[in-house]
Design brief:
Strand order of the largest sheet of chain A: 2-1-3-4-5-11
Shape of chain A: elongated
Number of domains of chain A: 3
InterPro entries (chains A, B): HTH_LacI (IPR000843), Lambda_DNA-bd_dom_sf (IPR010982), Peripla_BP_I (IPR028082), SBP_2_dom (IPR025997)
Largest interface: A-B, 38 and 38 residues
GO molecular function, one term (chains A, B): transcription cis-regulatory region binding
Pfam family, one (chains A, B): LacI
Number of strands of chain A: 12
Keywords (chains A, B): DNA-binding, Transcription, Transcription regulation
Protein name (chains A, B): LacI family transcriptional regulator
CATH superfamily of the largest domain in chain A: Response regulator
Oligomer: homodimer
Number of helices of chain A: 13
Order of helices and strands of chain A: HHHHEHEHEHEEHEHEHEHEHEHEE
Structural class of chain A: alpha/beta
CATH class of the largest domain in chain A: Alpha Beta
Helix content of chain A: 40-55%
Largest sheet of chain A: 6 strands, parallel
CATH architecture of the largest domain in chain A: 3-Layer(aba) Sandwich
DNA sequence: TTGTATGCGTTATCAA
DNA sequence: TTGATAACGCATACAA
């Protein structure tokens, strides 16, 4: 039979209340008794029963705040779906969610949204901007007892509880691996990134270059442009790039803007010449895959990211549990036309 | 606040016990009261609280039997790991698991194993052979109140509770999609399947042909052989095939035996000529991917299959919950060298 | 500093 | 046929 608080209490000759105080660090226990209880719990490998915790937790109520830069970015549609489903799943357990959305990555705007939420939440899920001011704010919340979970974008040197998102470097490596296979290892590549200011985008490009160096000497990056995650800018930049570099026969799109890129390729009549690899499966990308323009896309489980971030926040609030290594890394999944539609 | 049995009881002016009897079909309730309770529960959209159920269920104990054809088949290593982890996760809830393994697909042997278990289990997870005698046995168990979950291989026309595994047709389609991309849509393919008697293998080949017809007229299947999931037989068959058909420049391996196939290719010095696509990422396949022989493999989340099958059995025993559409379909994941190692 | 009592939602037992 | 009550493991308000 499993070890329970009751059993530990009996074994130590104290009451359940005392064991609870020790195991949950509530203080007010004589040091000797505390030591004894800890020793016994350790030896018996006590694991709190989740169902019991959840049931007892129903009496409380948890408000979780969410801030995402989802406006005008369809990638976040599935992230938000995952969050909403988690809210549903945890509704029974007294979880309420307040979502604030923003457009693009404006530091002051994000700070303002955090301040709007901060008084009324028990935890914050933050699609964070990698910036010192934001990091300081995260530390402030954490010190106040509001854990912060970074979602999709991480931030270094902060007291965030954990990061939920993909491994961007590995994503870039996977993209290059696919391009290598699709082109027989010979390609002149144009890179269209989102912004050199965004860590994740740079990491993808870095991963891409890693694999060139490691396995594909025949792949060469001949030009590089930024789209600011905007289809129009991507369209213009791609057109310019392809006109200036007639030798380009592959495009690596490290961020949003794939639709603009594809339209540029079409407008120059280069559909059959250029191999395109990109990220995520937003509707416009799916459309371009069906047209045959985009051969492969690397996806990062947006639904799972949203869903998991909420569950992690709840688990931490209820039982102090935190994920292994302070992170939950989703997979980079290769999708081609044939395996696009599958159960999440 | 969520709807509970207590609330329904109050609203109907009866005791919790009575509501419980109605909602769990235990009988012994006056028809009028039953109708009233059902109506109220329906209207309030009553959803039983899982934590409550789990807690109450601790008093019972569940024995789940598992039969898998895992002997000599490393694919099942991860399936078994998933099962063991589920046992760990549910240990607190009184779940015990008895695993019986077999080698290959021998109907009489499988029947015998079922009979050995049948007296002492509350549910059965069965890596079933698609056969009428087995189907009849499944129905017998089901009628006795022992739900049967088919794992990795399904069986038609039976009263099994649900199927946990992949969509084999889609797996074959994905494999052909990859091969099309890797070869620029032009290939002379040799197909090495496991056995024409195994439904899943046939479905993969079917999916492969679907995509040839749909998108890749330049891909042609020139020969076909069986490996019986055995590396030695696969080795011999591949060698023969490649010697007879010098034009073959791609191999589609629909089942186990990939290692034998690769060794045949190596022994003929054709490493650089032949594009190989296969299934699953057993250690010998990973080795061949690292050597560059296998370009891509389609994986089917073995760990998740094992883990999920146990959880589904438990959920059904505790709360009568069954998965949507009587199945839990795992994904066909494309893996190349760069995204082979990731969190499960 | 410690113990006791109560409740979370569900199920089982026993008495009526 | 029904209702009352205890139990599962945990958390906590309150009493000692």
């Amino acid at each position: 039979m499993a070890v329970t608080i009751k059993k530990i209490a009996e074994l130590c000759g104290v009451s359940r209340g005392t064991v609870d105080r020790v195991l949950n660090n509530r203080g007010k226990v004589k040091p000797e008794t505390e030591a004894l209880i800890r020793r016994v719990a350790e030896q018996l490998d006590y694991k709190p029963n989740i169902a019991g915790k959840a049931l007892a937790a129903r009496k409380k109520s948890f408000v979780i705040g969410v801030i995402v830069a989802s406006e005008g970015n369809p990638f976040f549609d599935d992230v938000l779906k995952g969050i909403h489903q988690a809210e549903n799943e945890l509704h029974d357990y007294g979880v309420k969610i307040i979502i604030k959305t923003m457009k693009g990555y404006d530091i002051q705007r994000q700070l303002k949204l955090i301040e709007e939420l901060e008084g009324g939440i028990h935890a914050l899920i933050l699609n964070s901007i990698s910036d010192a001011e934001i990091a300081a704010k995260i530390d402030e919340l954490t010190d106040k007892g509001i854990p912060v979970i970074t979602l999709n974008t991480d931030i270094e040197n902060s007291k965030r509880l954990c990061y939920v998102g993909c491994d961007y470097v590995k994503g870039g490596e996977t993209a290059c691996g696919m391009l290598g296979l699709l082109t027989g290892g010979r390609a002149k590549v144009g890179v269209i990134t989102g912004s050199v200011k965004i860590l994740g985008h740079n990491q993808r490009v870095q991963g891409f270059r890693n694999v060139i160096k490691r396995r594909y000497p025949g792949i060469e990056v001949v030009d590089f442009a930024e789209s600011n995650d905007d289809d129009i800018i991507a369209f213009e930049a791609t057109k310019k790039m392809l006109l200036e570099h007639k030798e380009i026969d592959a495009l690596f799109i490290a961020a949003a803007g794939a639709y603009g890129v594809c339209r540029a390729v079409i407008s120059l009549g280069l559909e059959n010449k250029i191999t395109i690899v990109c990220f995520d499966d937003v509707p416009s990308t799916v459309e371009m895959m069906e047209k045959g323009l985009i051969k492969a896309t690397i996806c990062q489980q947006p639904f799972l990211q949203g869903n998991k971030s909420v569950h992690i926040a709840y688990d931490y609030l209820v039982s102090g549990a935190r994920p292994h290594n302070d992170q939950f890394i989703v997979e980079n999944k290769i999708k081609i036309l044939e395996n696009l539609y599958q159960t999440p």
